[in-house]
């Protein structure tokens, strides 16, 4: 629990600092975010951060994606555990994305994961592509 709270605090602080550094540009367009994580429980502070940023950004809040990569993709098959994260993410307008490369590496069939999750071929590449489009990014 302490790690979740600390993670949320660090995530919020990081995003706040980045946002303050770009105040004039941000008033003119949407704010888009991407978080790359290797641990499913980190979805909780990620979603809370998205909710805080949505309040702060108001109408300029854009897209928010959480990319799951690494061995933790094996846990995505646990529909009971993922159900709560998926519901909270949908309410917070957070898209949960799964790394297809990780699915292959750890032998997880796409058919075994919840249909609400988007699968991309390569989560790290997807993250870089979003950064090139101007998304603010952090890796946990």
TrEMBL record:
A Pfam family recorded for this sequence: DsrE
InterPro entries found in the cross-reference section: DsrEFH-like (IPR027396), Sulphur_relay_DsrE/F-like (IPR003787)
SUPFAM superfamilies membership: DsrEFH-like
Keywords noted in UniProt: Signal
Domain of life: Bacteria
Signal peptide (from-to): 1-21
Name of the protein described by the UniProt record: DsrE/DsrF-like family protein
Species, as recorded: Christiangramia forsetii
């Amino acid at each position: 629990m302490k790690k979740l709270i600390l993670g949320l605090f660090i995530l919020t602080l990081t995003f706040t600092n980045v946002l303050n550094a770009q105040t004039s540009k941000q008033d003119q367009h949407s704010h888009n975010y991407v978080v790359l994580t290797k641990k499913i429980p980190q979805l909780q502070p990620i979603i809370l951060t998205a909710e805080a940023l949505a309040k702060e950004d108001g109408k300029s809040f854009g897209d928010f994606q959480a990319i799951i990569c690494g061995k933790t993709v094996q846990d995505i098959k646990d529909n009971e555990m993922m159900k709560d994260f998926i519901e909270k993410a949908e309410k917070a307008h957070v898209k949960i994305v799964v790394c297809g490369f990780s699915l292959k590496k750890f032998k997880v069939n796409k058919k075994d994961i919840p249909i609400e999750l988007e699968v991309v071929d390569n989560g790290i590449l997807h993250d870089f592509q979003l950064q090139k489009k101007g998304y603010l990014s952090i890796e946990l």
